[in-house]
Each structure stands twice: as structure tokens, then as C-alpha cells.
Amino acid sequence: MKANGVDVYLIPVGDPHSSEYLPDHYTSLTYFSGFHGENSNFVVTMTESAVWADGRYFVQAEKEIAGTEIQLMRMGEPGVPTAEEYCGKVLPEGGTLGLCGLTANCALVNSLKKELEPKHGSIKTLFLEDELWVEGRPARPATPAWILPKEYAGFSPAEKLEQLRGKLKEQGCTAQLVGKLDNLAWLLNLRAMDIECTPYAMAYCYVTPNRAVLFIDQARVTPEAKAELEANGVTLADYDSILDGMAAETEPQTVLAESATVNYAVYQVLENNPALTVKDAADPLLAMKGVKNEVELAHLRESHLRDAVAMVRFQIELENRLAAGEQLTELTVDEILHKYRSADDKFLVESFGTIAAYGGNAAMMHYHATPEDHAVLQRKGFLLVDSGATYLDGTTDITRTYPLGELTEDERLFYTWTLQCHIDIAKAVWLDYCDCHMLDTIAREPLWRHLINYRCGTGHSVSFVGNVHEGPHALNGRNTTLMRPGMIVTDEPGVYEAGEVGIRIENEIECYHKADNQYGTFLAFRPLTFVPIATSPIVPGVLDKEQVAWLNDYHRKVFEQLAPRLTEDERAWLAEKCAAIGC
């Protein structure tokens, strides 16, 4: 830093595409800080350093940075500055902040500029991570890129490009630089395995009224994919030519480039090209892919049923091996799940690293067992299993909290209250002008009655054969998106008591049109996930009649959907798990 004239250096969790999950090549924040969370920044000054973590990672971050000089900044807590505010505070008068322009998006840089302005600070683009992290650094990924067939995607790349051009015209634009990998994957039906558990290819796409240029490492594009792209009006250019390519554009265009998703280096090139007028606006692809088409929905329903069969077989094996006295660990859980899911002919990859968390480990929302640090399952307490898979015909995400034996009264109450939250959002009916944050309060109310809350959203959207997290909608206290028929969201409330217990119950649910009448348009949810929910921990008399009725009806549907796919012994097991309960 001193040699480069930099007073403060910021490393975000990021890659050139604002990805949530990063290729190992871009995990610089973890390499330098030791923290493995998402949605974070690491700031280093000449005398101190700090890392930011949101509520999902408070416990984990404390553990991972213990014994270092690094301060933990708990995002959202009273008196805790944002990373941008902190930079503005610690930067000396007239000082310089350094960052990598490829891994910082333009919105972050714009926010930093505002905070640095009172001190007349400046921003310098550097690549210190590349200079310092050389030995042992994973190579940039370049896995084979292929095309998801139209029979699964519902529309061809050419058809989606025309849809996008229509949306751009509505927004007063003639072109777009697509930088987000999930948006690009949906637009061109392009898939690869560049990111662990996420079937995307690192690439950019520049779309004009009569052209679509895909910037990608061309050697990794399969011949079939290349032919399919060219047949759909897409030409290929080298990935590393993106900056020179956009600088060389001479055709006048009004280019939509969302500052929150386009990296600072690319955005600067667009702004400095006199032929291009840059418009910072919401990426229309986010909303376009957020509503699943009928072909996608049909495949999602089928893939979830096959995934449910894998979950049933997993639970049967888990119970049998524990009953036989076998010593199992959190790692064993992952192995059993993978065995059953990967046996599916359409299985591609787990949709995220399985979270198998026993006892107090489950209080860390994104805990991951490792060979060096994992728990042995005991015949008491809860085992939380949050897992999913991506198949050729859909992506799944499910959490179940399994009782392994004796439970405390608090554990039973926490479980029952969590189930109330889960049921209340699952059976919700609302007018179509109610937004996501309003729905989020429905889920939390049973816990709020007991002065309990969870420091995360209630649910998130899920991509089709893609990222397990996507937008535009999410059930949380900030999202103002209106739910629409065809939108998929998770329903996953929970209780997390640090060091003691973590409980979460999660289904994917589909928004559908329920009715129109003189009062307006009513919407509701129906389940995509059909896996039994444990009933033995439920405290009698806590669920109301409507909640009990919903749970019994859900289990009736689970049995109807799964029984034809199971063996006789498996059906008998399922019938027991789906037995109706009383009030």
C-alpha cells in the first residue's frame, strides 16, 4: 500500500460479475482475512483492519477471525458503520483509497466516492490481490460451456434476445452490457461449471438492436454450443477483450449498464466511449427470469418430486444407521445425500454446499462441516439439514430439522413456533398490491409474539437450473417487489440461539393466481417441495386449527405425490411420517 501511495485498501467479496458465489480464483477476501462469508468487505489501513458480516455470519465470523487484529463489523447493528462510511472516517485528508476495478462494482465505488468527498479523497484502481496472492492461487475457471435445450428452457436464445430488445426499448435504451452471470445464463441458455455448485460460465454479453456479442474464453465453448449460439445470432469474442472491445465500439447506442452489477473497470470504459450514452438502470433480465415460464414450471415440479424421493431415502438410511448404533457425523449426512441425488440421470451438481449442522452448530446459519471441524451425531437434540441440487430440469433448496432423540422443552417450543411461521406464509392469501416485505411480516409474527426474531430474510427466489439465490423478489424487511404468478420463493423461517440450537424449516413455494372479485386480485402460494416435516417435536396445543389443517393437508399431498415413486417398504415409512396429527 505504501509503495503504491494508498492509505486505505478495500477488498470486496466479488468477482468481475458481482456473483454471490465466487470462483476460487476470486476469493481474495477469504485469503487475506480468513472470513468465509458472503456480502462482505475487508478494509485495511496502515494501523488497523476490519471485516463486515451480516446477521447470518455473526457467529461464524467471530470464530474465523478470533486471535487476529481484525475488527468484526456486525452489519445492521446500532452504531456500526458501513464499509463505505468507515473508509470515509479513516481516510486521511486528501488520502487515496485503493481497490481492484474488476472485482468492485460501480455502485460500490459511487458510494465510496460520496463518503470520501468531504476529505477530498480519491480512488485508485490497483491489483494488489493479484500481486500478493500468487502461490497456490486457483486458476480462473474455464469449464466447458454448453446450451440448455429449449425443451427445458422454454425459449431459444434468439427468442429471449428479442424479448430483451423489447424491454430495452421500453426503458429508452438501444443496447445493454450484460455482466451478471445468472442473467446471461438465462438470456442465452448458456451453462458451464465455473463456480462451485452454480452452473454458469464467466462471460459478458453486449446486445444491440442487430447484434449480440458474447465475450468468453472461446476454447471452452463446445462445438455444439458455438453452432447453436451462431444460429441464434450470437457472435463470440475473447473474454479478456471486453475492455478493448467496448472501447472500440463506434456505433452510437444508449447502453443500459446497471451500476450494481457491472464492474467499475468496464463501466469506466463505457462512460469514456464518446459513441455510447450510458444509462444506469435496473437490469430488465432480473424481472424477466424472475417469473418462470410454463415450461420451466412444469420441469420444476417434476425435478422437485425426484429430489423429494432422494430426501426420503436419505432420511430412511439416516434413521436406520443411527438406530443400529453406527457413529455418524455431519460429513456422513452430506455423503448420504449426495449418493441419492447423484443417482438421478439429470443430476448436475449440488445447488450449494450442504449444511448439515448438529446441535449448536446449526445456530450458524451458513455453517459447513469440514474434515477438521465437525460434530458427531448423538441420540438427542436436532440435526438441521439445508441442501439442494441442480438438475437439467430444475434447482431445489430444502431444509428439514430432524429430532435425533430427547429434546428440551425450549427446543420443542422453538421448533413449534418455527413451524407456525412456515405454515402462516405457506397458506397466506393476499391482494396483489402487497409487496414482499409485507409478506415477510406474516412469517415472523408467531416468533415476534415471543420476542424472538431471525437475522435473515424469510425467503429468496431460486433460479431455473442456476443459482440457488436470485432476484428480484425476496421475502425480507426491505424488498418491495410485488409477487406475481410464476414466481418461486423459499419459505424458511427459523430460530437461532448461539451455541445452543438452530432450527429451520424450508420449502420452495410457487406464487399463483387465486381469484378475482370486486375487491381485487388475490394471490397465494402452493408448494413445490413435497417432503415430510417432522411432527414429533410439536408441542400440543400450540398450533391453531388452521395450521394443523394445513399441515395434515400438506402431508396428504406429500404421500399422494411420492408414494407411486417408492418401494413398498418406503411407502410404509412415508405413511407413518405423513400421519395426521390432532390439535
UniProtKB/TrEMBL annotation:
One Pfam assignment: Creatinase_N
Enzyme class: hydrolase
E.C. no: 3.4.-.-
Annotated Peptidase M24 domain residues: 299-509
A GO molecular-function descriptor: hydrolase activity
TM annotation in the entry: none
InterPro entries, per database record: Creatin/AminoP/Spt16_N (IPR029149), Creatinase/aminopeptidase-like (IPR036005), Creatinase_N (IPR000587), Pept_M24 (IPR000994), Peptidase_M24_C (IPR032416), X-Pro_aminopeptidase_P (IPR050422)
Keywords, comma-separated and alphabetical: Hydrolase, Manganese, Metal-binding
Keyword Metal-binding found: yes
Domain of life of the native organism: Bacteria
Organism: Faecalibacterium prausnitzii M21/2
Protein name: Peptidase, M24 family
Any one of the GO CC terms: cytoplasm
